[in-house]
């Protein structure tokens, strides 16, 4: 009996020993595998393609601390073209999403004399709202910037109240451009000017030196090249800047994809199905790419965005994250200063 019991004891001991050894081996393998996994601590930048070379060039949170070539933060003032009927819809959506990501911002509108909306940094002038008055408003806005904020910022973005701007990508795009260089950038169109002009609906940006040249050499001096009233706002701006020595800063990326967009993303992705006689085919300075190649992974602007879609875009860009990528707070980088409201702004006489 004892030999049989001894055999059973030995067998049980062997089973326990083998089980323990197997458990230890599995634990060791799991530990080694988990230690080799390195989840990213944050996104590199909005629209990152996650290539190894890009990760080296764009460390974590780079866009929130984007510096120019001299190591200083790229300071951007954004001004948004709006009107009283849009205060509680389009302007409100802009104010709740992308505008606070600029370093400073204000809305420019006509002055109705009514109670001003709460929460909107509003600068206004006496003007009847009309498409033919857009150029008057644009001139007045840049003259106001010249008089009050020219030396406080490096670049000045003009956008409509139905545009969505990825300010982080704008700051990234401008990182190697000096404010002392007289340049402007946007969606480059071909006709009407020698070197092209920027789409007003697609938004455009001017350097400090460009604003200075525009006001001092075009707006404040009598000339026959810079129109005072009426006409297409974006064409007028292109003509004025071209004649005062402001150069074009081309905004396409290294793959020839556009960064500034005069329509919403879906329209540009589906552009191959648009009529071949549609005006953009002949207006666009660069060959138009369609499908997912339509737009840069560091796109800056989209136009004709409804308020609800503006909130949706903001969610997708700043809040939604794929599993395994740490979330970026929607408030991070949204510390721009709402600039002081002001009424009675003067335009060109």
Automatic annotation (TrEMBL):
Keyword Amino-acid biosynthesis belongs to the record: no
Biochemical pathway: Protein modification; protein glycosylation
UniProt feature coiled coil, ranges: none
Any single Gene Ontology cellular-component annotation: membrane
Molecular function GO labels: glycoprotein-N-acetylgalactosamine 3-beta-galactosyltransferase activity; nucleotide binding
Localisation per UniProt entry: Membrane
Major location (coarse): membrane
InterPro entries listed in its UniProt record: C1GALT1/C1GALT1_chp1, Fringe-like_glycosylTrfase
Keywords: Glycosyltransferase, Membrane, Nucleotide-binding, Signal-anchor, Transferase, Transmembrane, Transmembrane helix
Topological relation to the membrane, as annotated: Single-pass type II membrane protein
Enzyme Commission designation: 2.4.1.122
Domain of life of the organism encoding this protein: Eukaryota
Residues in Fringe-like glycosyltransferase domain copies: 80-249
Alphabetical list of Pfam families matching this protein: Fringe
Family under the similarity heading: Belongs to the glycosyltransferase 31 family. Beta3-Gal-T subfamily.
Record-given protein name: N-acetylgalactosaminide beta-1,3-galactosyltransferase
Organism from which the protein derives: Macrostomum lignano
């Amino acid at each position: 009996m004892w030999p049989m019991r001894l055999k059973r004891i030995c067998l049980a001991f062997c089973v326990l020993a083998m089980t323990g050894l197997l458990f230890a081996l599995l634990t060791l393998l799991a530990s080694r595998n988990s230690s080799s996994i390195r989840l990213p601590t944050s996104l590199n930048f909005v629209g990152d393609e996650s290539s190894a070379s890009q990760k080296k060039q764009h460390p974590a949170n780079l866009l929130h601390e984007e510096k120019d070539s001299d190591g200083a933060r790229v300071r951007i003032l954004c001004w948004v073209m709006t009107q009283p009927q849009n205060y509680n819809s389009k302007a409100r959506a802009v104010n709740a999403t992308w505008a606070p990501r600029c370093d400073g911002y204000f809305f420019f509108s006509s002055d109705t004399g009514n109670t001003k909306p709460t929460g909107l940094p509003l600068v206004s002038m006496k003007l009847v709202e009309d498409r033919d008055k857009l150029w008057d408003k644009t001139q007045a806005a840049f003259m106001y910037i010249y008089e009050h904020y020219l030396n406080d910022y490096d670049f000045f973005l003009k956008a409509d109240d139905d545009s969505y701007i990825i300010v982080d990508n704008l700051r990234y795009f401008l990182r190697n451009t000096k404010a002392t260089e007289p340049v402007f950038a946007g969606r480059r169109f071909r006709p009407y000017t020698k070197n092209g002009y920027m789409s007003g609906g697609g938004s455009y940006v001017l350097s400090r030196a460009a604003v200075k040249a525009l006001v001092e050499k075009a707006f404040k001096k009598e000339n026959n090249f810079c129109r005072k009233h009426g006409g297409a706002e974006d064409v007028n701006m292109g003509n004025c800047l071209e004649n005062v020595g402001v150069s074009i800063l081309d905004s396409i990326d290294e793959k020839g994809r556009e960064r500034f967009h005069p329509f919403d993303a879906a329209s540009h992705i589906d552009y191959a199905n648009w009529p071949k006689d549609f005006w953009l085919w002949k207006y666009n300075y660069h060959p138009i790419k369609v499908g997912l190649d339509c737009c840069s992974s560091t796109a800056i602007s989209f136009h004709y965005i409804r308020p609800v879609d503006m909130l949706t875009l903001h969610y997708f860009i700043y809040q939604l994250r794929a599993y395994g990528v740490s979330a970026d707070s929607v408030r991070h980088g949204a510390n721009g200063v709402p600039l002081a409201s002001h009424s009675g702004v003067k335009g060109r006489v």
